[in-house]
Design brief:
Blueprint: H1 2-25, H2 27-33, E1 38-42, E2 58-62, E3 67-77, E4 82-92, E5 98-117, H3 121-125, E6 146-160, E7 166-174, E8 187-192, E9 198-204, E10 207-211, H4 232-238
Antiparallel strand pairs: 1-3, 1-10, 2-3, 2-9, 3-4, 4-5, 5-6, 6-7, 6-10, 7-8, 8-9
């Protein structure tokens, strides 16, 4: 019985890793196809390529010491007020024992407040913003894109390995740009619908919004030079 449970746990952990990898790897295509304004990184991608162990995962605690560890990625659009994002989570007891693990999927963009772009963020952060470990995000940044700060609120569905799914509100704060006094700490917060314990103490974890500027898309083909000599064949046809 224990060996069967262990096998299920390993399979689920593998599937969760595949989901997160696929989510990050598919971001460039998704961002261009759905007109997304921002790419969202929650303790994933190149944010984790650092000697700083506190960068990933993002950790948030409740008053009783229970914590959630989360990672994820996706895109959001302020124009259509939509979000496409997914990731993994682990709930731990105050003494660090794993109580629950699973995947989460965003279902709604509740709100997004931008703090503005932060052009120097990559240089200040150093190796933490170097090449990511996998996928087409191996360059330092998408062409024409800019790191930005902001506060996003998502409605998400948590799907644990065992037991029923639950709905919660995930708050993602990236403290770049003009950060308001009431949100100075980078990280996440989590509140389950229907009341109960709130996880509102940001412990660690890097987050970032990447603004997809017009320059991120391929430039149009250069028009032909109108001053060039006409094609003799074309001139002959016009006679």
């Amino acid at each position: 019985m224990s060996s069967h449970r262990g096998l299920r746990r390993r399979i689920f952990a593998w599937a969760s890793g595949v989901l997160l990898t696929a989510s990050v790897a598919a971001i460039p295509a998704t961002a261009q196809s759905n007109g997304a304004d921002y790419i969202v990184l929650i303790a994933s991608g190149f944010l984790c390529d650092s000697s700083d162990s506190s960068a990933c995962p993002a950790v948030v605690k409740s008053a009783d010491g229970t914590s959630y560890e989360m990672s994820g990625a996706g895109t959001l659009s302020t124009q259509s007020k939509s979000v496409t994002a997914a990731g993994t989570f682990t709930r731990k007891s105050p003494n660090g024992n794993s109580l629950e693990t699973g995947i989460w999927i965003a279902s709604e963009l509740v709100s997004f407040d931008s703090y503005g772009i932060a052009p120097g963020a990559l240089m200040r952060a150093g190796p933490a913003f170097g090449p990511p470990a996998f996928g087409p995000m191996r360059s330092r940044m998408f062409p024409g894109a800019m790191p930005a700060g902001g506060l996003a609120v998502f409605r998400i569905r948590l799907l644990p390995m065992w037991g029923p799914s639950r709905t919660a509100v995930l708050q993602v704060n990236c403290a770049l740009g003009k950060v308001p006094d009431e949100h100075p700490i980078e990280g996440i917060r989590l509140a389950f619908e229907g009341g109960g314990v709130e996880f509102d103490e940001e412990v660690s974890g890097r987050t970032m919004f990447i603004l997809m500027r017009p320059g991120a898309h391929p430039s149009p083909t250069k028009p032909p030079d109108t001053d060039a000599e006409p094609n003799p064949a074309s001139a002959e046809l016009q006679k």
